[in-house]
Design brief:
It comes from Hypocrea atroviridis (strain ATCC 20476 / IMI 206040) (Trichoderma atroviride). The protein has a domain of 137 residues: P-loop containing nucleotide triphosphate hydrolases (Rossmann fold, 3-Layer(aba) Sandwich). Helices cover 52% and strands 10% of the residues. The protein is globular.
Length: 196
Amino acid sequence: MSVESVILIGPEGSGKSTIGKIIATTLSKELYSIDRHRDELYPPFGYDKAFAEKIYEEQGLWPFYQHWKIFEYQAVSHILQNASREGEEFYGKIIDFGAGHSVYENPEELEKIEALMKPYPNVILLVPCEDVEEALKITEARRNRKLGLNKHFLEHPSNKRLAKYTIYTKDKTAEECAESVLQIIRGNIQQVARPN
């Protein structure tokens, strides 16, 4: 089965990494978690980790998040421009977007990311449920801690605008959710293979 890049988006604690691992194993593909590659993705765009940490220490979470947005946007743009064709750096990977990588405060940036995502058939939003308060409780219970920006991520319209499909993970195992993602991928492959 030939699989194009698969993009998993959603808030913290929605199951992106866990479900991504299952999909990657099933399809014999690489799972690429953007959060885990920040230190190599951001510096080419001028990111200074020590400076970012200083902002967090001196000004708190929201200014730190705002500072990060510049680099998240540039890193995601770079990935999306290098994942759509065979032979490109990110092509065929299961790409797990960190919670902030699919949320854009700047409407122009959101529009540009939306345009870059247009060619990708497998953009899947993972979220516990539609209700924000319930989803927040579920994600915090999964992480066993308060998640400072998660309510913002859950309420923000970015994810719904970018997603081609939504899978609700509440009361489902990671395996069941992964199977739902795999059904979407298989369906898209069949659609491409179908003669006009």
